[in-house]
Amino acid sequence: MLAGVQYPSDYYAGLTLGRKIAEQVIAKAKLDGSDAVWDGNMPSGPCIWRGMNPGNVTAANWRPLLLTSPSQFRPATPPPCDSAQVVAETAEVRNFPRAAPGTPASFVFRYKAFYWQSPEGLQTWPYVFANKWIFEDKLDQNPPRAARAYALLAASFFDAFIASQDGKFTYWYIRPHQLETAIVPRIYDPTLADANYEVSTEEAHEIIRAANKHEGLLLSPSSAANLAGTIRIAEKLDEGILVTVLPDNADKYPEIIQKILQHDHH
User: Which of 47, 88, 154, 219 is the most exposed place for a label (fewest CB within 10 A)?
Assistant: First the structure.
């Protein structure tokens, strides 16, 4: 927050007000459905997403703050995945130039793609613009107005997320990389790896439970799979040091992780 912190009295007054508001927000959150647990049911078919761990699957039923319902802006039914339209669109994605490091001509769209996949591009970009405009319009001298601007941004982002999940889990539509397995990064070289290890969903779930129980870690399924592969290699070594990368945490999979960890208590 960039307004209302010029004096200690501002800080303490804001802290007291924030705690009172937080109590109301927490009470409201307990009724918005965000603590629901997925029942595990999902459709099947040639044009349906394939996988075991759909992230944020219950978000489609959360109660929005501003929208009349999660389905208020639901998109139309997508075309069949084998239709001429989808075949052409998939080919466009597959053939799109994405070689690294690229060329001066490709830099224009490449840097934009990287930005929108960065933490700022995914999460905080509206606040970056808001901060600038608040200073330009001198709203930093009017903390209540600045707070309303921030609150509106947060509420809009929350509802936009719910609406996106409604469209996603109404149709469960197949993802491009599942529709066209040839879509892989051009920098990927399958000949570089000495070995490939396949990790089952069940094995990854066991690692998630073990890491949480013994190390206090909340791993994503992909991170758990990496760790499972590392453990397999370690079991074959007499000595040495192993390093692995945990590419994700559990933040994006609250329903799945909750269900996996509950299984450990049954």
Answer: 88
Of the candidates 241, 254, 200, which has an alpha carbon nearest to the alpha carbon of residue 224? 200
pLDDT in tens, the chain (266 residues): 555 566 778 778 888 988 999 999 899 888 899 888 888 888 988 899 987 778 889 999 999 999 999 999 999 999 999 899 998 998 888 777 766 566 676 777 778 888 888 889 988 999 999 999 999 999 888 888 998 999 999 999 999 999 999 999 999 999 887 777 656 666 677 788 888 888 888 898 899 999 999 998 889 888 999 999 999 999 999 989 999 988 877 777 776 787 788 765 55
Check the CA dihedral 162-167-169-175 and report its sign. Answer: negative
Cα angle 242, 248, 254; round to 5? 130
DSSP three-state, residue 259: helix
Q: Where are the alpha helices (H) located in the chain, listed in sequence order?
A: 8-29, 84-95, 104-116, 119, 125-136, 143-171, 176-179, 201-215, 221-236, 254-263
Q: Say how many CA atoms lie within 13 Å of 216 toward its Cβ.
A: 0
CA distances from 178 to 23, 173, 175, 218, 229 (A): 44, 10, 5, 27, 23
Dist. CA 258–CA 218, nearest whole Å: 10
Give the closest residue to 123 by CA, choosing from 152, 161, 164: 161
End-to-end alpha-carbon separation of the chain, Å?
44
Cα distances from 232 to residues 41, 199, 218, in angstroms, run 32, 10, 20
Tell me how far apart the alpha carbons of residues 257 and 234 are, in angstroms, rounded to a whole number. 26
